[in-house]
Specification:
rod-shaped, mainly alpha, single chain
């Protein structure tokens, strides 16, 4: 039996309100993973764009 099947067997025995909480938690876990992927992408972009944004010509914009 797969993990998903084991979870399903347990969740289907729960009252609806408790099953909703499990569903909300699953959504939270999925979003957390997606946010981590997005954060990794943003970090990679920030590092590659740093020379473009951090230069002497643009110092005037640092305090804006």
């Amino acid at each position: 039996m797969t993990i998903a099947e084991l979870i399903f067997e347990q969740v289907k025995k729960l009252p609806d309100q408790a099953a909703r909480e499990v569903l909300d938690f699953v959504g939270f876990i999925r979003e957390r993973g997606e946010r981590a992927d997005w954060r990794d992408l943003m970090s990679a972009q920030a590092a590659s764009l740093a020379p473009v944004w951090d230069n002497a010509e643009d110092k005037v914009w640092d305090d804006a």
